[in-house]
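INFO worker-7 received task bundle
INFO bundle size: 2
INFO processing item 0
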Amino acid sequence: MKRFGTHRVVFLALLIAMGTALHVVEALLPIPLPIPGVKLGLANIVTLLAIYLYGFRDGLTVALMRVLLGSLIGGVFLAPGFLLGICGAFFSTLVMAALLRYTRCFTVIGISMAGAVGHNLGQLLAASLLLQSSAIIFYLPVLILAGIPSGIFTGYLLKTLIEHNHKTGILNYYNS
């Protein structure tokens, strides 16, 4: 893998653009469950793909840039939602990169589920700092129960993409 190859930089820019688009579109979707803070996490597909292809640093770049750009487009930059999103993205990326690098017992779906839980944990930690109260941590079981199915769904989508790549090789071109 070329460290700073043109293909890599262009593909990372495309991943940031896709992640930002998914972030913005998902913010516009009505949430089917009346549970605050619950969403599918479609943009995490792009983050996990970046980690899968290029590693933690590039995955973190994609995650943080998509949250930053998505909040600028959505008009919530530096609002509490932005701070929750950036903390969630950081924790999620950290968890997914660690599992992908240091374990062999998790599938992409399992890593995605762990990333969803990490995202929820990061958001709750940020919320407890913003509210200056640790009582919000009691909301964690609710978010975990909601995060597991969304992690399964987004992990399945990425697994399908990776399997399709093994047939077509399209991502191999961008990973050179």
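INFO item 0 finished
INFO processing item 1
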Amino acid sequence: MTDPPPTPAGLKEMLWLFFSPSGRISRQVYWLSFAVVLSVMFVLGRAWEASLVIETNPDSTLQELRMTGASINVLLSILPFEWSAVVLIAKRCRDHGWSGIAALVWMVPFANLLFALYMGLVPGDPGSNRFGPGPDRPSY
């Protein structure tokens, strides 16, 4: 049986891709969507950094570092993108036949980068596996 041809993605598919932990995705979709998520997180991180209040002594040593209301709002706006990163990695885990729980490695500093690279470089299971049909198809 052949997989159906791809169709243009609409809002429902985009919401599934970035926010629903179900299903599987291919390496190509992983890299493209992960690049979007990380790019937005980078921009928000720079905005957070710019919103901090940094006071220094005359000798340029740090005297005080404070968060403002704006910096708290920026940090809160990063949370959906952090969720998206976990969701994307979970979908790649399922493409390998693993439980999506393995995506929690994303929360471990330094290991997260290696794991994210592994997920994007190593091919998943060809065809169907216990987590559903081929990758890049919502399971709703």
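INFO item 1 finished
INFO post-check item 1: Helices lie at 11-19, 27-51, 69-95, 111-121.
INFO post-check item 1: The two ends are 20 Å apart (CA to CA).
INFO worker-7 idle
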